[in-house]
Amino acid sequence: MVNPFNDEAMLPQLCAAFNRLFSVYASRAKKPSAGPERDLVLQVIPLSFLANWDRLTIPPPKAYVKLAFELYSRCSPVQREYQITASPFTSGSAVRLAKTIPRTIDFRLTSRPPDGLLGGNSSIHLAYSWSADQEWLACAWTDHLGAQQWTAVYCLQQSEPDRWAAFSDTVKEILDTTKDMTHPPSQSWKIYLVKDCEIQQREQI
Predict the structure, then answer these.
(1) For an engineered disulfide with 87, which of 107, 134, 158, 183 has Cβ 3.0 to 4.6 Å away?
(2) DSSP string covering the chain
(3) Cis preceding linkage at 60, omega within 30
């Protein structure tokens, strides 16, 4: 989506327009005649990135690379019929580490390989940060390979007058998201939690 406005206050309206578009697309994609379901990803690009009234617009190659990484890292991978259904957090990331070769292989005559075949030493990395006014909390998840990724931003002043009460409720949702990312759950998972600054005493719940 191209943003022709210079005022950042127009971004919510652009997102609302995309949300209406996505709702219509999702309702029609559920029909059998619609064919294979495809995902939609919002990427807002300023008009100055594409065109200018006074001169030819040619962004530097680094700007294109940054845009490609930002966009494709949020795209869901294309699922093939022969693939096992992936986690909803599976990402089509532009960067993904290769899986290590397992030390032992459990040979069994089954149609589905064991979950632990390539899932040794699986881990989820969770990073979070407060906004400057401490009204917003941003979180980012990724597994040790970059195959599963997720980001979320929580408003802590919208529903609860007490910021710490809202923080406690938000932590529960963050933990639920983290549990959902441990896919498959039969594997042994390690959770790494980091913050961009010192963790306060009341955050240690």
Answers:
(1) 183
(2) -EE--S-GGGHHHHHHHHHHHHHHHHHHHTSGGG-S--------EEGGGT--SSS-----HHHHHHHHHHHHTTSPPPPPTTSPPPPTTB---S--PPPPPPS-------SS--TTSS-TTEEEEEEEEE-TTSSEEEEEEEETTSSBEEEEEEESSSS-SSHHHHHHHHHHHHHHHHHHHS-STTS-EEEEEEESSPPPGGG--
(3) no
Whether 126 and 140 have beta carbons less than 8 Å apart is answered as yes
Q: What is the pLDDT of residues 20-78, one digit of tens each?
A: 988 888 888 777 665 666 678 888 999 989 888 888 888 899 998 888 888 877 776 66
Which residues have CB under 8 Å from 90's CB, separation 6+? 76, 77, 147, 148
Quote the pTM value: 0.60
- What whole-number distance in Å separates Cα of residue 157 and Cα of residue 116? 42
17: left (phi over 0), alpha (psi -120 to 50) or beta: alpha
CB atoms within 10 A of CB 6: 9
